[in-house]
Amino acid sequence: MARDGTPITILVADDDADDRMLIEDAFEESCLQNPLHFVEDGEQLLQYLRREGDFEKLRDEPYPGVILLDLNMPKMCGRTALGKIKEDVNLCRIPVIILTTSKAEEDILRTYGLGVSSFITKPVTFDRLVEVVKTIGAYWIEIVALPPECTTNAA
After folding, report:
1. What domains can be seen in the chain, in order of their start residue?
2. Which is nearest to 67 in space by CA: 130, 153, 149?
């Protein structure tokens, strides 16, 4: 939650429609009231964050407080999108959590090297996904102090 009591937005970048549905259901099951937005690939993610194209209407809105990012997506993979986010002076402070099926040590090392905040392998069961979402909510929404651009108007 923002300092003014407004819930922060959570942005999920995942190309798999079933995974997006499960993540949305897990947030509902966890009773998190935060706005949850979805994009389907790295290009859409950057357009959303830069308020370009279909996302221009968000220009006066705060940036998301947390990004959940899948690594393996079409058009632009999560690794490339993460690198671009962390290189951008306007976006680099937004916490990015990798949420992926990968368990590869190379992915873990590379994404932490690019500045990811956390790396989580997608749970196999829905109940475990709900636990993960509750933990994300407890830590990233209730405990952590977020940068001002995630809690006040971006313009």
Report:
1. 10-144 (3.40.50.2300)
2. 149
Amino acid at 144: V
Order of strands across the sheet that contains 36-39? 36-39, 10-13, 66-69, 96-100, 118-121
Map residue 8 onto helix, strand or coil: coil
Q: Which one-letter amino acid corresponds to residue 9?
A: T
Can you read off the two tokens belonging to residue 150?
A: 């995630």
Looking from the CA of 95 toward its CB, the CA atoms found within 13 Å total: 22
pTM higher than the cut 0.85? yes
The DSSP bridge pattern shows strands 66-69 and 96-100 to be parallel
| pLDDT per position as a tens digit, 48-78 | 999 999 999 998 888 899 999 999 998 988 9
